[in-house]
Specification:
Largest sheet: 5 strands, parallel
Number of strands: 10
CATH topology of the largest domain: Methyltransferase, Cobalt-precorrin-4 Transmethylase, Domain 2
Number of helices: 9
Helix content: 25-40%
Shape: elongated
CATH architecture of the largest domain: 2-Layer Sandwich
Distance between the termini: 25 Å
CATH superfamily of the largest domain: Tetrapyrrole methylase, C-terminal domain
CATH class of the largest domain: Alpha Beta
Oligomer: single chain
Radius of gyration: 22 Å
Length: 279
């Protein structure tokens, strides 16, 4: 509720062009807000093959669909601006969550310069779909206290800006590598050269939540060759760390002594004073 007692507006009630996270692939993982917005759209500008065509067919069938791949800002911004100013309902549909390795903000800033408001609608990022596929958590008590979203060095990231080795070196961190399928072998070779444990678990989830999803499991020492044998060069999420196996964790304090093998509590836990280890 707002300060004046009126109900706050939701994502579907905001003014402007929504930048919607389409999720990792499975149309069922599009959020309720995202579904409402794309179903009501007259124009959906989408991220090409990164968005499952089944989602477009199921929820965007009545809208004009424009693939943004190969189009620069000088083409996209007038396209969306003209449609919005003519009274059409426009949705910009990104893959995953637009806050993770997307280019949403530069488009939103350009729209603002053109006098068109916009806003973000969260989506499910591929790291979460991948952890669900692996039946594990990215954080596990006494195994992984931190999660890192990163990418390997390449055209966008210089060697000096690649901190994957540092993150793996923390030990209690789950490292999720985006945009790095093509460089799995090179990344693992660098980790080996820098002295990391070759038996550290690694999982590569190709097309997490898609019908052709595939999981390759191994270690820092073995995963590179396995991915090369599979022939994947894009569209996979790489996870490094002990949480990959979902084992050797300690029970959290979330449910008190009862969950840790003690006596069942007489009363409900004091949630105001109890500090959980994880969500």
């Amino acid at each position: 509720m707002s300060a004046d007692g009126e109900a706050d507006t939701g994502f579907t009630d905001e003014e402007g062009i929504p930048f919607v996270g389409a999720g990792p692939g499975d149309p069922d993982l599009l959020t309720v807000a995202g579904r409402k917005l794309v179903e009501d759209a007259d124009l959906v500008v989408h991220a090409g093959s990164l968005v499952n065509s089944e989602l477009l067919e199921e929820f965007c069938a009545d809208a004009e669909q424009v693939n943004s791949v190969g189009k620069d800002l000088e083409e996209l911004i007038p396209l969306m601006t003209d449609a919005y100013e003519s009274g059409r309902t426009v949705v910009r549909l990104h893959s995953g969550d637009p806050a993770i390795y997307g280019a949403a903000l530069e488009q939103m800033d350009a729209l603002a310069e053109a006098g068109v408001p916009s806003y973000l609608v969260p989506g499910v990022t591929s790291a979460f779909a991948a952890s669900a596929t692996l039946r594990t958590q990215l954080t596990l008590n006494e195994v992984s206290n931190h999660v890192v979203f990163t990418r390997p060095q390449g055209r966008t990231l210089s060697a000096e800006e690649d901190h994957i080795s540092d993150f793996v070196g923390f030990g209690d961190t789950t490292v999720c590598i985006y945009l790095g399928t093509h460089a799995v072998s090179e990344t693992m070779d660098r980790l080996l050269d820098e002295g990391h444990d070759p038996d550290t678990p690694v999982a590569v989830v190709y097309h997490a939540s898609w019908p052709d999803e595939d999981v390759i499991e191994g270690t820092i020492e073995t995963i590179g060759e396995k991915v090369e044998d599979a022939g994947y060069r894009a569209s996979a999420l790489v996870i490094i760390g002990e949480a990959v196996n979902g084992s050797n964790y300690e029970r959290s304090f979330l449910y008190g002594d009862w969950a840790r093998g003690g006596d069942a509590p007489n009363d409900e836990p004091d949630t105001e004073t109890q500090e959980p280890d994880n969500e």
